[in-house]
């Protein structure tokens, strides 16, 4: 069968709806942005986490809720400074992509038979950006404008990125209708992204690898760039801004926020350093680029994954040495599984004769692919997801039995991890905002431990999507493989 006919067959194959089809796509597209705002407003530095009024639903009023969340009107959701700063941040990242030394890597073979080339220097770009931030911090400390701007404009920055997600998804959807068979740029439609339903295709992504040519910056692969550039690094910049805010308010930085920030920074920098590995992920080789990935990369990831650090910036939890050791051990175990499994897979795919993987057993499919049935990948078909999830525990555990309320007093207590700075004048006396657990203790875990629960659901759903795609690709061979490697993520359990 010719490449053209093979591509036509793949495109015409019925993939079915994912995420419950158009209804699910609508719910995610317009519901998850609202969830971002709920997290930002209901866990705050104005009244508490959660806002005290929501703990008493029978007496809850709209006016009291507005007061508790610091509502200043819809104009508070976005401002020109945040828009300009966000666009400037994106432009700066694009320039670094163009001017810094880069590795040129070929992607996997497309249905049309071609291979796209990718310019990769995400790690160098991140290091350059963080070096500038470090220099500014050394010079100006916690008052470095980058950190204060992020804290003061957290919600406007989030709104800007959400709007960019909508705009970007619309642009790539409209652009996808210019894709023609046999084009020299190897543009293709995603196999599952042309259902014919406008909303669903806009959400899931109609074009597989949309690209755009930008003056001076050259050709940019939108999907791979959005996956690893602005959102991932933005996540760490948010964490660092929250750490600076804690220091500015309390004159010290706690081990709890250091652990969260360092653990998440290692995760991000590891992904950026191993940038070529993204080319073999399901996001790149199978999913189209639509609102799902645009919103996930630019808004959901940085602004919800950073919730524990934002919480600790306001309520600096103190950890014992034993608690610190336990959290670090958990993170170390997760990272070991995650990185060892991924390294094993990447080495085998790159060079099966590599001495580090040559001893591994595998089964060969009719399509010529080799599936590992020993080593890490012989224990579970998606063993790397287990390590990924265990690592996420270290992002949440430092928040402890989360939850606090903000109280006002006229006497400033000594730093004990629970008392921020002066807040103004009340009754002729200096006002001190004191953060205490109170009745909110435990309820804050809805926010700070959300990532652990969400990530587990995400990974299981992702694993299910992987399985469906593998069944379509390998057919009976996949059934034989599942008999040899029966567990999906957790050996002996699932």
TrEMBL record:
The UniProt record lists the keyword Transmembrane helix: yes
Membrane protein topology class: Multi-pass membrane protein
Pfam families per record: ERG4_ERG24 (PF01222)
Subcellular localization(s) per the UniProt record: Membrane
GO MF annotation, one: Delta14-sterol reductase activity
Regions that span the bilayer: 20-42, 82-100, 121-142, 154-174, 250-269, 289-307, 319-338, 442-461
Signal peptide start-end: none
Keywords, ordered alphabetically: Lipid biosynthesis, Lipid metabolism, Membrane, Oxidoreductase, Steroid biosynthesis, Steroid metabolism, Sterol biosynthesis, Sterol metabolism, Transmembrane, Transmembrane helix
Family to which this protein belongs: Belongs to the ERG4/ERG24 family.
Name of the protein in question: Delta(14)-sterol reductase
Source organism per UniProt: Coniosporium apollinis
